Structures are given as structure tokens and as C-alpha cells.
Amino acid sequence: MAAKPSVFRADNPLPSDLSTDSSIYRRGGGGGGGPSSASRRRDLVFVVNPRGANGRTVKEWKKLLPYLRSRLGTHCNICESLTSGPSHAIDITREAIREGADVVVAVGGDGTLHEVVNGFFWDGKPVANPEGELMHSTALGLIPLGTGSDFARTFGWKNDPHEAVERLAKGLRSRVDVGVISGESGESHYFINVADIHLSAKAGYYASKYKRFGNLCYVLGSLQAFMGHHNEDLRIRIDEGEWKVYSQVTALCIGNAKYFGGGMMITPNADPCSGNFEVVILQDFKWYDFILKLHRLYMGTHLSVKNVSSRSVHSIEVEDLSGRGSIYIQSDGEHLGFLPRKICILPSAIEMIC
């Protein structure tokens, strides 16, 4: 039998792009005469966005590959899969999990990580290996190479791909929480970092149009979002309790992790291993408040500022009292549409290489 390739490229946007040589994910066991779980090679799928960071991601990835092969190639099957467009990383991840991959690694920024996390779920349930290996689950990995790597900041990880490879080599796993967002359509959407509503979500929407300017995109997006902005009254229910009206809300942030917007520590008490969100609400902020208090938002010292409140929650439902359907919501920097929405925590939903 011919030797299996150490790298398999998947450039086709169809989910079947990982099944051309699906045997590289199969693991021996039982009475089939295959290798035992102790001696088998680990199967790692690297999901790379070649357009990330204006093409810089794929350049850095190509530089990293020789080191990655030398560090992991002895004990791992390495599968490189390049995404071809929006949502392709979701399809790649689902197929890899179904084929029994040990780790699916997001290579890029928070956008790529966001899609890979969504690939761990299908139709409201975790994706499973159909062979039903009870002692095995696919873990999530991350090599931060994109424009924004805010999720990595919560763990104190540097934007150093070699350090990320060392984490993969050690293979230490920890359970992390995931947020799930549902709307009137009933469709579920997942996030691992921060979901946010109103001004910050609108700023993120506009920032996505300026990605070619690097981290400056967040400043440009914020400036555009401020034009014509109005604080709004929102109807909110926390942990299935009573509905309450919060007046003149500027922004509402639901943190599974701490950072968003290129390094702003918006939910400083959030911990993706805690089983809770931190919700931070900014009310009645004017444009000059952001200028005067921006340093506090980046340092995470804004919770003592007037008109800022914070609490730990398991679920939160948010409605637009105006009924115009014009209040933005995003998660992990990805625009999801408009209110109303319900956001819930899924404790210990995914194993992650930490």
C-alpha cells in the first residue's frame, strides 16, 4: 500500500474535501489488528484562511510549515486545508471530526477560530465521530496569525506561532465553554470569545470593511458607527428571570473571554472555563466618554465608571423596544444580524489544546 501523505490540501469548498484520503483519520482498535491508541499517530487538521490579514496569514503559515513538520511530523499526520470562502472552515471542521481527527487547528485570527468553533456543532448538537469512540473526542487548537487574535489574549498567549506549535506538541487539553445564540428563526450560532450588541457590534460590522488596514480597522469602524448613533432602551431578561427595561443602552457585551476589538479588555472578569458569561452594559455614553475613558476600556478598569454595570450570567435575552429591528449583534467579530436574540452558555462544551 502506498504511504499516506504527510500533508493533504483541501481546496474544494464541499465538505467531502477531507474524505479523499479519509483513512488518515481512521484509528486502529478492537480486533482489526490496527495500532493501539497508545502507539497510533495523532491526526491534526490545520484550517488555514489564505485571505486572512490581507494574505499575510498564508505567508506566515508557509514559513511555519517546515518547523511544524519537523516538530510534529514524527508522531502526527498533518493535514493542511485551505479555506476557499466564508463558512468553508465550518464544513472542513465537521468533516474532520466525523473522520475522527484528534485536533482541528484554526490558523488565523478570531474569524477563522469562530468558524472552526461553529464546525464543532450541527443542528444544535455537537458533531460526533460516527464510529462512536467513547474514549476519544476531537480537540480545538489555535495558531493565532490573523488581524485580530483577541481570544488568545485571555490565556496570555503571544502572537507567536512557534509557541502555538509547542502547545500542540504537548497536547494538554482543557474543557472550555462556548456560547450559543438563537433568534426568532430558531437557528443556533456559536461563539467562543465575546458577543456584543448595539454600538460595538455596529463598529465591528463597519470594521470588517477596513480589514486591509490591519488593527486600524477597529478605529475606522468605530468612527463610522458613531455617525448617527443613538442610545436605545432594551428589554432584557437574565437567567430566565423577570424582564427589565435598561434605558439608553450604548453597548451590551457578553464575554466568554476577556478581550475584543483588537485588545480591549471589555469583560475583564470573564473566564472561558467558569461556566458563566460576564455581561457588561454601558448606558448613556456620549462620543466624548469613549475618548476620555478609552484607556480604561483597554486596561479593563472601566467597571467602576459611572453608567457601567457588570454581572455573571448563564443566559440573557435581549429585545429592541423600538421595534425597528435595527440594533446590531455580532459574535467573535462576525455580524449576525439584529435583535431579538437569546444567548446561553454551554459549559465545558469543547476540549481545547492549552
UniProtKB/TrEMBL annotation:
Decide whether keyword Kinase is in the record.
yes
Membrane-spanning intervals of the chain: none
Q: Name the Gene Ontology biological process terms.
A: phospholipid biosynthetic process; sphingolipid metabolic process
One of the record's GO molecular function terms: ATP binding
Keywords assigned by UniProt? ATP-binding, Kinase, Nucleotide-binding, Transferase
Q: Which Pfam families match?
A: DAGK_cat (PF00781), YegS_C (PF19279)
What PANTHER family does UniProt report for this protein, alphabetically? SPHINGOSINE KINASE, SPHINGOSINE KINASE RELATED PROTEIN
GO CC aspect terms:
membrane
Q: Which organism is it from?
A: Castanea mollissima (Chinese chestnut)
Disordered as annotated region, ranges: 1-42
Protein name in the entry: DAGKc domain-containing protein
Q: What range(s) does the DAGKc domain occupy?
A: 39-185
The question of whether Transferase is a record keyword is answered with yes
